[in-house]
């Protein structure tokens, strides 16, 4: 049956099970929007800026594990979505971006709204395509979904010239088998090498001071069950990255919570003193390792990851295991059990866990609360309480992001959705909208900074239009807070261009856009407005929490320093307490 | 020296194995890449290598005996550990079928050079002709003032010949960049020629 290229696009998307597209139309993509309208089978969310559409698709994908789909026109539409593409690439988010392109015969002519988006996004996509022929259109779209969602997930862009959306063809939609056959060079490893797994088992049983270091790969692989089983079977404490949050429940006795620059004292001390580090779906980001020569200096390292290129990239590891984290952990557990899951040095293991308990007691995550001014950490704690620890939390980027990571406890995967790799301010609100659309049964809280919020705040209108009841808590310190903190600590308080005291009235802004607005200026108002906000079910709520301006995120490992140079929650150095450590 | 952490004995002496951090030997690497001949594949590979901060010394591409499949020989100078990263990243590209760093395996390397030499006198012509013969080159074009010479060989041979031709005055030169292939059996190169 002959139909237009645009109809083929919609037909193929439906074949892939797409139920929602985030986007904004324009000349080059108009045919596809017309087909979307005529078909009526896929919901479309009209963002107010393509960056918003991209982050919404990311939020949807991060919250559900499904592929997020975004669509824009050519030229400025396409360049506006570059940031979310880079963001998705860094955080391994499965996403397909469809862009319109000028007609084939105009490509390369500097035509109106032409940009070489395939060239621009080459280094920030897992793969990208320019469609040259209508008959390859369905195969390319199916390839895009297959590539985006398998192996180490990532964004894939499909650029479709306008004439191709207008031409007619009777091409059939290829089967998955045909798609795989058309990708002979693409074969993700999933199984894990059994010899390496055996080596890992030996190291795990012999270790005296093991630690699990868990990243986003464990979330993508849905490996929570295996992680809990392994940790409990061998009594191994577990630290996670921001991407790995929720892969291991943070209220579990073996949880060390977050490691790295703003990790807990006990997670960092445990990693620093470990003699075996088992990295699971993590990539040794510099925000995690700090000074690399002093990262876990005494430890042997096992690294399990689906991406062979992630292994030994920053740090040479002892036992590399390439494979799907869930599958490898399952095999590892089976192998451990086959060997009796014995610990060679049970007494030392016991002492290790005792030592960690001591560290937990010595420096728990705390802050000094106040009756006069609202402390940002207090806001997060109250959000934790009113949501019973069950909400999906989506932060922007800055201090508030770290407080949200520290003072809310995460218990399930895909519960903390943040821009971890690229650190994109403006991610929070649109990603939160996407997450709520993907998981409407969950309470979704965007915890944003006043700086981050204004970067994409126009998407409030989108949330109002589609009645998406996201809750937005702005931790308003009237500063680009995280930059101010660095200026305070490392630039003798020279506060260069971080003052945001002139901001819109967020309550009026919310109301002007059709949302509900609240403000809290005193600690006792925090709980009140949160409870009010929880009652709103048909539109977004914007809460402006006016907080202590100069509060810092602590503990902190200064950039480029090692864990033992940590600044503690009271501002003192950790040196005094770490004399008995390795090295 | 030893100390304890929570009762467990640990070494306090300088950490036994300081983490190796992306520091390896810097040298020339020859990477073979088999690719599907898709649009943009060359750009993708070049972008990837450039993105890691490496300069491509030479790159040659051509079709193989299999339809739709090309082979590239890439020469890059860099740190062993980072080149290993580059190889792994190249393997991840969707259109690459096989990537192999053949630097440390026995392999054959060849390059073709066209060089136009200034030969206005008969004496110069005689001498250049002799050099060309010694290096098994060919004269492929002649004019009253110049010889254009074609020569194939490995880097050493080509450089040696160019060195000898330099005093005559090189007017133009074009090199293809290397092509390289792993040897099936280890036979010393001299025996083959
Ligand atoms: C798009 C973008 N621009 C700049 C930065 C650098 N940056 C990191 S944190 C930060 C300040 C964030 O301020 P705000 O959103 O108000 O959060 P706060 O730190 O005050 O909680 C800046 C400017 C960034 N991460 N992203």
Structure report:
- Chain B: One of its GO terms (cellular component) is cytosol.
- Chain B: Residues 30-104 form the ACT domain.
- Chain B: Belongs to the acetolactate synthase small subunit family.
- Chain B: It is an enzyme of class 2 (transferase).
- The complex is a heterodimer of chains A (583) and B (193).
- By secondary structure, chain A is α/β, with parallel strands linked by helices.
- Helices cover 39% and strands 15% of the residues of chain A.
- In chain A, strand 12 (276-280), helix 14 and strand 13 form a beta-alpha-beta unit.
- In chain A, helix 1 (5-15) packs parallel to helix 7 (137-149).
- The mean pLDDT of chain A is 95.
- Chain B contains 5 helices and 11 strands; from the N terminus they run βββαββαββαββαββα.
- Classes of the chains: A alpha/beta (583), B alpha+beta (193).
- The interface between A and B is large, with 45 and 39 residues.
- Thiamine diphosphate (TPP) binds at residues 396-400, 423-425, 449-452, 475, 477, 479-483 of chain A.
